[in-house]
């Protein structure tokens, strides 16, 4: 099973995200994510043996408890890229509010999952929603221009749970399904 831990965006955010992606439609080299599957990846776990699911679910429950984060509001807005504007591999929508709680949850998840043997992250956590991946630099200048000029706000939503999500790769792109949910209390 190819797994990750996520905070999923509500269904009514799909259209505003699609509208934002449309602003980048002329930038060649971008491969857009499905706005109906928009989420913040809290931890990518990768290929995981199904036998390890019970331990992983217990670890994620403990991580939520350790973090001590109650349900909170996230406002999604702003644009950014990874790793830099000069060399773009990912275009993303940022978090204007709620980033502190997301980071606290991420750090707790990171601690519990690395204890189980999952690889630690090799970069700092930046809460974001991936809008597109840049496969070649043909449209880099347009992406740079829009990222520097635009400061969109998509909206606010309440985060009340984390999800353990399975990603099944298909010819049409990844298909996500929820394996387990972990309420914030």
UniProtKB/TrEMBL annotation:
<dbReference type="GO" id="GO:0008664">
    <property type="term" value="F:RNA 2',3'-cyclic 3'-phosphodiesterase activity"/>
</dbReference>
<keyword id="KW-0378">Hydrolase</keyword>
<comment type="function">
    <text>Hydrolyzes RNA 2',3'-cyclic phosphodiester to an RNA 2'-phosphomonoester.</text>
</comment>
<feature type="active site" description="Proton acceptor">
    <location>
        <position position="128"/>
    </location>
</feature>
<keyword id="KW-0436">Ligase</keyword>
<feature type="short sequence motif" description="HXTX 1">
    <location>
        <begin position="39"/>
        <end position="42"/>
    </location>
</feature>
<comment type="similarity">
    <text>Belongs to the 2H phosphoesterase superfamily. ThpR family.</text>
</comment>
<dbReference type="GO" id="GO:0016874">
    <property type="term" value="F:ligase activity"/>
</dbReference>
<feature type="short sequence motif" description="HXTX 2">
    <location>
        <begin position="128"/>
        <end position="131"/>
    </location>
</feature>
<feature type="active site" description="Proton donor">
    <location>
        <position position="39"/>
    </location>
</feature>
<dbReference type="InterPro" id="IPR009097">
    <property type="entry name" value="Cyclic_Pdiesterase"/>
</dbReference>
<dbReference type="Pfam" id="PF13563">
    <property type="entry name" value="2_5_RNA_ligase2"/>
</dbReference>
<dbReference type="GO" id="GO:0004113">
    <property type="term" value="F:2',3'-cyclic-nucleotide 3'-phosphodiesterase activity"/>
</dbReference>
<dbReference type="InterPro" id="IPR004175">
    <property type="entry name" value="RNA_CPDase"/>
</dbReference>
<protein>
    <recommendedName>
        <fullName>RNA 2',3'-cyclic phosphodiesterase</fullName>
        <ecNumber>3.1.4.58</ecNumber>
    </recommendedName>
</protein>
């Amino acid at each position: 099973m190819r797994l990750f831990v996520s905070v999923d965006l509500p269904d009514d955010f799909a259209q505003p995200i699609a509208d934002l992606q449309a602003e980048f439609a002329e930038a060649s080299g971008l491969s857009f994510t499905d706005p109906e599957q928009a989420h913040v990846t809290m931890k990518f776990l990768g290929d995981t043996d199904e036998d390890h699911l019970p331990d992983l679910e217990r670890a994620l429950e403990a991580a939520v408890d350790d973090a001590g984060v109650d349900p909170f509001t996230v406002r999604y807005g702003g644009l950014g890229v990874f790793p830099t504007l000069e060399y773009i591999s990912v275009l993303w929508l940022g978090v204007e509010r709620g980033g502190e709680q997301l980071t606290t949850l991420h750090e707790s998840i990171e601690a519990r999952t690395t204890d189980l043997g999952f690889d630690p992250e090799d970069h700092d956590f930046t809460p974001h929603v991936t809008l597109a991946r840049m496969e070649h630099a043909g449209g880099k200048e347009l992406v740079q221009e829009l990222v520097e000029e635009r400061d969109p706000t998509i909206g606010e939503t309440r985060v009340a749970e984390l999800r353990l999500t399975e990603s099944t790769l298909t010819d049409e792109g990844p298909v996500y399904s929820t394996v387990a949910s972990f309420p914030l209390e």
